[in-house]
Amino acid sequence: MLATPQRDNLNKIVILNPKGGCGKSTLATNLAALYARGGETPAVMDFDVQGSTMGWLDRRPADLPKIHGIAAYKKTMQATRSWQLRVPNDTVNLLVDSPASITHDDLRELTRDSTSILVPVLPSSMDIHAASRCIADLLLVAKVDRRDRKLAVVANRTRKNTKSFSKLMRFLDSLGIPIIAVLRDSQNYVHAAEKGVGLCEMQPSRVRQDVEQIEKIVRWLDAWPDRRRGASEARSLDRPPVVRRSILRRPQFGSA
Ligand SMILES: Nc1ncnc2c1ncn2[C@@H]1O[C@H](COP(=O)(O)OP(=O)(O)OP(=O)(O)O)[C@@H](O)[C@H]1O
Ligand SMILES: [Mg+2]
Q1: Element spanning 91, H or E
Q2: Is residue 182 part of a domain?
Q3: Is residue 164 part of a domain?
Q4: Of 55, 78, 190, 191, which sits most exposed with the smallest number of CB within 10 A?
Q5: Does residue 2 lie within any of the structural domains?
Q6: What is the pLDDT of residues 70-103, one digit of tens each?
Q7: How confident is the model at residue 214 (pLDDT cuts 50, 70, 90)?
Q8: Of the bound ligands, which one is closest to the alpha carbon of residue 29?
């Protein structure tokens, strides 16, 4: 069972999708680097035994802005779980990188008290199917309320003009879940991962287009207090939405 910290003013951003290799760690590290560049010390919490995000942090050059790392995948007998997962008091933004497959219990635990949940999705029809299952689980198992508007998709390594991308758009649209950024396929991500840096820390002329998309994600993430306020107003007017699994299964994705 996982455990995650709770604090009212903590921006807890959970990045998940049980599909391996869709870009969870890439998003976690690049968002952390962008937050760090803004002058704060963000925290990354790595729940994946592969330790990709912690490895990236180990490779991070010492002269770059600091990022606090928490190796949540490590089990220790020396400390309680909550001590191991503690987040520094002055942390404003916490990025939670999740593993490729998680149990329903872990899904509930991981997303509890989250302010935002990002689901990176690759453009193939197999990946889009997996993402729709992931979103179904978030809504039905983790009981994420769509009215909270905390759930968003990041289309990764994507070309916009494909059949499967427009089907994904229509499907998410019908659920009111936004695609907040589209990241292109670029070796910049691979080089940044190798060097322990974020794209925003690479030569600007090389990465401008990519960094703009990551900044777009940050703008959406930073608006979480407004989204939360809007959600509680909507809830006071509304009846709870009915989410049926049959609705979530409806899309038939063709190949790209
Ligand atoms: N937009 C992109 N363009 C090019 N390469 C990318 C892009 N996004 C991710 N990658 C590369 O794809 C690989 C998988 O990405 P990443 O490790 O972030 O996925 P993940 O979802 O964390 O995988 P896992 O489920 O194994 O933890 C990495 O080598 C990463 O550098
Ligand atoms: Mg990963």
Answers
A1: none
A2: yes
A3: yes
A4: 78
A5: no
A6: 999 998 777 788 888 889 999 999 999 999 989 9
A7: very high
A8: 1
Q: For ligand 1, what atom is nearest to the CA of residue 20?
A: 25
Position 250 scores a pLDDT of 47
Residue indicated by tokens 């960094």: 211
The mean per-residue pLDDT over the stretch 106-113 comes to 93
Do residues 82 and 6 lie in contact, with contact meaning Cβ atoms separated by under 8 Å?
A: no
- The protein residues having their C-beta less than 5 angstroms from ligand 2 (an ion) are 24-25, 52
Tokens encoding 201: 């820390």
Tally of structural domains, the chain:
1
Residue in 17, 24, 26, 119 to alter for ligand 1 test, most ligand atoms within 8 A of Cβ? 26
* Centre of ligand 2 from the C-alpha of residue 240, in Å: 34
Angle at 110 between CA 108 and CA 112, to 5 degrees: 65
CA dihedral 150→18→216→124, nearest 10 degrees, is: -130
> Going by CA atoms, what residue is nearest to atom 6 of ligand 1?
189
- Closest Cα to atom 16, ligand 1: which residue? 23
Around ligand 1, the residues with Cβ closer than 6 Å are 20-26, 48, 50, 52, 100, 156-157, 183, 185-186, 189-190, 193
pTM of the model: 0.90
> Which residues constitute the domain of residue 184?
11-249
Helix axes 24-37, 52-59, angle to 10 degrees: 40
Please report, for the domain that includes residue 177, its CATH number: 3.40.50.300
Closest C-alpha to 213, from 166, 254, 130, 155 = 155
Q: How far is the CA of 121 from the centre of ligand 2 (A)?
A: 13
Element (H, E) at 12: strand 11-15
In a domain, 6, yes or no: no
